[in-house]
């Protein structure tokens, strides 16, 4: 729906963390590279600009 908030961003990091752990346990490096690449790209293109738009990390920490 294109709506971002702290909860969704935290959920993204937690979900990605769990997927990476599962990948490491089940099939090391099979999908790990793709997960990390996708997450980094999403953070750079979506999350970072959203945080800047909201006033940066200092403002974000008090929201």
Keywords:
mainly alpha, 63 residues
Give a quick summary of the entry.
The protein has helices spanning 6-26, 32-53, 56-61. With 63 residues, the chain is mainly α. The protein has one domain (6-61).
What is the total number of structural domains?
Answer: 1
Q: β content, as a range? A: under 5%
Count of discrete alpha- or pi-helical segments spanning 4 or more residues: 3
For the sheet with most strands, the description reads: none
Low-confidence stretches: none
The pLDDT mean sits at 83
Bulk shape = elongated
- Taken in chain order, the helices and strands follow as HHH
Number of strands: 0
**Rg for CA atoms:** 14 Å
Structural class: mainly alpha
Give helix % range.
over 70%
Distance between the termini: 21 Å
Question: Overview of this structure, please?
Answer:
The chain has 63 residues and is an all-alpha fold. The chain has one domain. Helices cover 78% and strands 0% of the residues. The chain contains three helices and no strands. The longest helix is centred in the last third of the chain and has 22 residues. It is elongated, with a radius of gyration of 14 Å. The protein starts with 5 loop residues before the first helix and ends with a helix.
What's the helix and strand layout?
Elements: H1 6-26, H2 32-53, H3 56-61
Helix pairs in contact: 1-2
């Amino acid at each position: 729906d294109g709506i971002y908030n702290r909860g969704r961003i935290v959920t993204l990091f937690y979900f990605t963390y769990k997927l990476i752990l599962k990948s490491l346990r089940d099939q090391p490096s099979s999908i790990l590279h793709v997960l990390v690449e996708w997450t980094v790209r999403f953070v750079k293109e979506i999350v970072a600009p959203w945080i800047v738009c909201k006033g940066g990390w200092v403002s974000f920490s008090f929201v």
